[in-house]
Write a structure and sequence with these properties.
Distance between the termini: 96 Å
Shape: rod-shaped
Number of strands: 5
Largest sheet: 5 strands, mixed
CATH architecture of one domain: 2-Layer Sandwich
Number of helices: 3
Length: 134
C-alpha cells in the first residue's frame, strides 16, 4: 500500500510592506508641505559685528553686497538698477517679508545706501542691515 502524503502549502512568511510604505509616503508629503525654504543671497559675506544685533526668525528677502561692489539677490548677481524689480517680485510672493541687506565689511557705504533706497522704493517698509553678534 502506498501512502500518500499531502504536503501543506508553504506559508507566506514575508512581511507585507504596503502599510509601512503608505505611512512613509504620507509623512513625506507632510514634511514637503510644511517645510519653509530659506533663500540665500548667493554669496558668502563677512558681516560686521554689532553688540545690538538681533536674530530675526521670519523669512526675509536677502540682498548681499560683496567687497567687490557686486549685488546679489536670490542666488543671482544683479545690477543695482535691477534690484527694485527683483525685490518687488519677491515681495509679491511673500508680502510679510522684510529686506535684509548683508553688506561685506569692506563694501562701499554708498552702495549699501543705494540698495536700501531701492528696497524702500519697491514698497518695503522693513529694511535692515545684517550684522553678527560678537
Amino acid at each position: 500500500m502506498k501512502v500518500r502524503r499531502h504536503a501543506a502549502p508553504p506559508e507566506d512568511t514575508g512581511i507585507d510592506l504596503t502599510p509601512m510604505l503608505d505611512v512613509i509616503f504620507i509623512m513625506l508629503i507632510f514634511f514637503i508641505v510644511t517645510t519653509t525654504f530659506v533663500r540665500e543671497a548667493g554669496i558668502e559675506i563677512n558681516r560686521p559685528s554689532a553688540e545690538t544685533a538681533v536674530k530675526q526668525e521670519q523669512s526675509n528677502i536677502l540682498v548681499a553686497i560683496s567687497a567687490d561692489s557686486e549685488v546679489w539677490i536670490d542666488g543671482q548677481r544683479v545690477d543695482i538698477r535691477e534690484l527694485r524689480g527683483m525685490i518687488r517680485k519677491l515681495k509679491s510672493e511673500n508680502p510679510e517679508a522684510a529686506v535684509i541687506v548683508q553688506a561685506d565689511r569692506d563694501a562701499r557705504a554708498g552702495l549699501l545706501v543705494q540698495a536700501m533706497d531701492q528696497a524702500r522704493l519697491a514698497g518695503v517698509r522693513d529694511v535692515a542691515v545684517a550684522a553678527e553678534q560678537p
